[in-house]
Amino acid sequence: MSAEVTRGFDAGATRYDLLVGLNPGYHQHLRRAAQALAELVPNARTLVDLGCGSGASTKALLGAFGDVVTIAGIDASGGMLDQARAKQWPAGVTFTQGRAGELASLLDEPVDGVLASYLFRNVPEGERDQVLADAFEALRPRGALVVLEYSVAGDARAARIWRAVCETVILPLATVTGGNHGLYRYLERSVLEFDSVPRFVRRLHATGFTEVESRTVPGWQQGILHVIRAGRPA
């Protein structure tokens, strides 16, 4: 994530939860992604919430795994982390400022699972393979990565719907709620420019992940939002 994008999230942090909460599927989709990780590593005890933001995805992980897990929430935005830390958490949940691709320096030992929600489209294209390699190395053998991400490349219908929703719903709401209109204009563009799902899947395979699987979500975001699962082999 570039310094400019990080500053955008800092500026929009205080209104972020309000704005995403107006999306009726937002928390449901986070729970879906967290449950996908729980299916892959049901006995996990150590997790990373990479790009944890204000902690909504962290809450979804606790719902899927329970309080027995240790969760390291990591995000580049100090403003978003301030929002996360202001909430009540079990003792095993911590939040650390750091960038995707730096897990080797942020973790004391490998973990059982990594969740990355709405992160990879914010990673510059030339850095995505390195961030995936970093996540791969952070996992124990038989560990798993789950990515929840928007992707419309190669699907003209999905791209049209995404543009229409941004222009008629998301951007007006960002203006009304004071949620940093420029940030959500950037997010619209970042989705349109992100990898297609097949291309991202190829990145995962090239990194060494196996048993890669992608499923889209139901509802209006079908074909737009995807849960992508991958495992580190033994």
Distance between the termini: 30 Å
Indicate the mean pLDDT: 91
CATH superfamily heading:
Vaccinia Virus protein VP39
**Shape estimate:** globular
Order of helices and strands: HHEHEHEHEHEHHHEE
Number of DSSP helices?
A: 9
Main β-sheet description: 7 strands, mixed
Strand residue percentage: 15-25%
The radius of gyration is: 16 Å
Spans of at least 5 consecutive residues with low confidence: none
Q: How many extended strands?
A: 7
Oligomer: single chain
At the fold tier of CATH, the topology name is Rossmann fold
Strand order of the largest sheet: 3-2-1-4-5-7-6
Structural class: alpha/beta
Outline the structure in words.
This is Demethylmenaquinone methyltransferase. It comes from Micropruina glycogenica. The chain is an alpha/beta fold and 234 residues long. The chain has a single domain (3-231), classed as 3-Layer(aba) Sandwich (Rossmann fold). The chain is 48% helix and 21% strand. It has 9 helices and 7 strands; from the N terminus they run H-H-E-H-E-H-E-H-E-H-E-H-H-H-E-E. It has helices at 3-21, 26-40, 56-65, 78-85, 103-106, 128-138, 156-177, 181-193, 197-207; strands at 46-50, 70-75, 93-97, 111-117, 139-150, 210-216, 225-231. The chain has a 7-stranded mixed sheet, sandwiched between helices. A hairpin with an 8-residue loop joins strand 6 and strand 7. Helix 2 crosses helix 3 and helix 7 (156-177) packs antiparallel against helix 8 (181-193). The protein is globular, with a radius of gyration of 16 Å. The two termini are 30 Å apart. The model has no long low-confidence stretch (mean pLDDT 91).
